[in-house]
Specification:
TIM Barrel
Length: 521
């Protein structure tokens, strides 16, 4: 059962620092377009996230422009940009966030022996002076400066305390001690914060922050342990996306504090009823599916198949649920959707599933829904989710499918006739292949020449039955860059084409950006 959040003093308030648009986007294949970043940032701002790390401005012109535009549009949240210790990085970051109502520069530097020796190739005294210089430079631009001791959990305690004291003295208002490689344990992490706060004389002048990666599956537990040790900011991402095994999951840390407020007496400003909506949006724009058994926002988070569980749920929901679905934006009641359903019912269903679409997007989605309903007897929630996610993913694509015809069967070779809309112009081709999917991909290659390699092709049925929608996942690799994309359609071949083309659109975006090695937090 969800308890009432602690409404006590600001001392018990935990700031939520969302880094979906920065650390989350560093996840291989999870890059977002300019428009998609703005859409995610707008939702994060609306749902009460305290700080939005909008990107890494020095990385590319595109990243700079998205951070700058998010800074202009933000209504409530602090807008942070990330920068390394280099003066150019800090200045570029300051330029990007300067129009925000509440700008922040987040600057980091490695402090662990292994990072200083092999990554920075500098002695501790050099690094110590760099800390002072970088924070001072950042503070000359903005009043709100966050400094991170990269690989802080593997940093020698004496040197960590020395650097933290210097950073605060130079003007840092937030100190982040990240578990950059997901190495620590909850007990160690809590003790680390207690030690630093006790030993650093000016520790009361700054807010301490946690930033945990999930390499050993302890990112959420470590984040909450850090708060128990005195930190009052959690850095996290929607759906836990991020480099390697990902970051601490925003929805999990928020709900952990709400549900177990009896043992974790802290509170946040996040509207938890928007969590499912945020999860679906980020999944759609990154083409990263949320695992079915993912805590809080997974498809099975509130599903019960066991007869014993179903019996208990019918008698009282608290027998097997510690949260109400509506607490995170999931509705228990359900509208049965089919070909006779109208636009109003469809709009209400979308709201129930966590989507708010504009009129044009709604019309497009409704038309696709009606086409789908004509081909299926029952349209399940999962069908609509797949349909809308596919619509969102393709909304800003420069390459779109106009029509596809495939000739397949035992008498090969198979053949595909394809018409694509490329930058507003229709292009037609025919191609043969060793199977219908190969023929389709060959046709796409003829119209959109590329050198990308197909690393993954995966098909699964969204729902049950022979008329189920197919969802196809495709991963392409080109020049060391990987992108993942999904496509959904009752026709597996159409879904395959959609997924492949969406992946090519993402690669086109990747080609336009230059991403320097960040190694951040």
């Amino acid at each position: 059962m969800t308890t009432t959040p602690n409404s006590g003093s600001d001392q018990d308030r935990v700031r939520i620092f969302d880094t979906t648009l920065r650390d989350g986007e560093q996840c291989p294949g999870a890059s977002m377009t300019f428009e998609e970043k703005l859409e995610v940032a707008e939702l994060l701002d609306e749902m009460g996230v305290d700080i939005i790390e909008a990107g890494f401005p020095i990385a590319s012109q595109g990243d700079f422009e998205s951070v700058a535009e998010i800074a202009r549009r933000a209504k409530n949240a602090v807008i942070a940009g990330l920068s390394r210790a280099a003066p150019n990085d800090i200045d570029r970051c300051a330029e990007a966030v300067k129009h925000a109502r509440r700008p922040r520069i987040h600057t980091f530097l490695s402090t662990s022996p292994v990072h200083m020796k092999w990554k920075l190739q500098k002695e501790p005294d050099e690094v110590y002076q760099m800390v002072i210089n970088q924070v001072t430079r950042a503070r000359n631009h903005v009043d709100d400066v966050e400094w991170s001791a990269e690989d802080g959990t593997r940093t020698e305690h004496d040197f960590l305390c020395r650097c933290v004291e210097a950073a605060i003295k130079a003007g840092a208002t937030t100190i982040n001690i990240p578990d950059t490689v997901g190495y620590t344990t909850p007990e160690e992490y809590a003790a680390l914060f207690r030690m630093v706060r006790e030993r650093v004389p000016n520790s009361d002048k700054a807010v301490f922050s946690v930033h945990c990666h999930d390499d050993l599956g302890m990112a959420v537990a470590n984040s909450l342990a850090g708060v128990a040790g005195g930190a009052r900011q959690i850095e996290c991402t929607i759906n836990g996306i991020g480099e390697r095994a990902g970051n601490a999951s925003l929805e999990e840390v928020v709900m952990a504090m709400k549900v177990r407020n009896d043992v974790m007496p802290w509170h946040t400003g996040v509207n938890a009823q928007m969590l499912m909506r945020a999860s679906k949006l980020v999944s759609a724009v990154t083409s990263f599916p949320v695992q079915y058994n993912k805590a809080v926002v997974g498809r099975n988070a509130f599903a019960h198949e066991s007869g014993i569980h179903q019996d208990g749920m019918l008698k009282h929901t608290q027998t097997y649920e510690i949260m109400r679905p509506e607490d995170v934006g999931v509705k228990q009641t359900s509208l049965v959707m089919g070909k006779h359903s109208g636009r109003h019912a469809f709009r209400e269903k979308l709201k129930e599933l966590g989507y708010e679409l504009g009129d044009n997007a709604l019309n497009d989605a409704f038309n696709r829904f009606k086409d789908l309903a004509d081909r299926k007897k029952i349209v399940y929630d999962e069908d609509i989710v797949a349909l809308v996610d596919d619509e969102i993913a393709q909304a800003h694509d420069r390459i779109k499918i106009v029509s596809l015809t495939v000739i397949a069967g035992t008498q090969g070779p198979q053949q595909a006739t394809l018409v694509l809309d490329i930058d507003g112009h229709h292009h037609t081709t025919q191609a043969k292949g060793n199977g219908p999917v190969d023929a389709i991909f060959n046709a796409i290659h003829q119209l959109v020449p590329h050198t990308a390699k197909l690393m993954l092709y995966q098909v699964h049925a969204v729902t049950e039955g022979t008329d189920a929608q197919a969802e196809v996942s495709v991963r392409l690799e080109e020049g060391g860059k990987e992108v993942t994309a999904r496509g959904a359609d009752p026709d597996t071949l159409v879904a395959s084409a959609r997924a492949y083309i969406t992946a090519l659109n993402k690669l086109a975006v990747k080609r336009q950006s230059v991403n320097p090695q960040t190694g951040a937090a």
